[in-house]
Structures are given as structure tokens and as C-alpha cells.
Amino acid sequence: MSASHSSFGAALHADSPTPERGHKMSLYGFLVGDWEADVVIHPGAGAPRRASGEIHAGWVLEGRAIQDVWILPGLFYGTTLRVYDPSLEAWHILWTDPVMQVYPRMLGRADAAGIMQEGENETGGLIRWSFRDITAGSFHWRAEASADGAAWRLQLEFLARRVRAA
User: Fold this and answer.
1) Quick one: which of 43, 50, 96 has its CA closest to 72?
2) Does the chain have fewer CB atoms within 10 Å around its N or its C terminus?
């Protein structure tokens, strides 16, 4: 075992993005660090509920990916692996939530308003998750779902504030 990879954490974590992918790694680079969030849960029926959440993100896999942990106590505790694919000029987004037992896969790209991630949920319904109003100290994340691709229903919002940069 090499000294630089003497533990799981040392083998997983990276200090920065890999230089071989250049500026393409910057799309999600803002996320690296620690965040707290005001969360709005939009149920299918009834009034929205409010909660507090947290997000922790860092470079992983020799700087070829970003991994984050999103925590909303009582609802989910999951992780996202975000891997840039130069052949698609997009990011593979893999969300894993062992609490809710959901594992959607999406593609993420920059759009005019920030970042859009699009894919399908476990039942084949369409989902889109977006990052908007991105600054060095805050962002607005939204999760939406659609049965037909025309009508979208807002499910969840995170209004995040940076607690600590990486």
C-alpha cells in the first residue's frame, strides 16, 4: 500500500480538479465546501413544509469527479457522484439515497440560467434538478418531476448558504 493512499479517505479524496480536464471541471466546482440550507418541501397536495438541511462536497477520484452528501433529517441522507465525460461534454450525475431507496441517473450541463440535470426516476418519470442563482456564497437548487415532459411539478428546493469553502 502506498503512503499516499494509506486509507479509504486518502484514496477517495483529492485536493483539486485534475488539470487534464481543464476548465470543464469548473461547472460544479462552486459546490466544493460545506453548506447549510433552508429547504422547502412541496408535497403533491397541501401546504409546503420547511426544514433545514446541509450539503458537503469535495473533489474525488484524483480530481476527476465531485462527490457530495445532501442531508435532510427525516427525509433523506444521500450522495451524488458527478463525473465529467469529455466525449459528451456533460456530467454523469448518479444520486444514491439508501434512506428513500432511490437511485436516479441524470446528465448535467450548463444552461443560460445555471446548471440543468435531466434524467428519469425509478418509475420512468422525467426529472430535472437545477442549480440557479449561483454565487460564491449561495445557490438555489430545485427538484422537479413530470409524467409527460410538458407539465412539471416542483418537489423540493434548497436555498443554500456557504458555511466553509474547501
Assistant:
1) 50
2) N
Can you identify the CATH homologous superfamily of domain 3-165? Calycin beta-barrel core domain (2.40.128.20)
Most distant CA pair in the chain: distance in Å? Answer: 55
- DSSP-based three-state secondary structure for 36: strand
Q: How many residues does the chain have?
A: 166
pTM for the model: 0.90
pLDDT, tens only, 12-43: 988 888 888 778 889 999 999 999 999 999 98
pLDDT over threshold 90, residue 158: yes
DSSP 61: T
Rounded to the nearest integer, the mean pLDDT of the chain is 92
At 101, list the grid cell: 431507496
Q: What are phi and psi of 148, to 5 degrees?
A: -125, -5
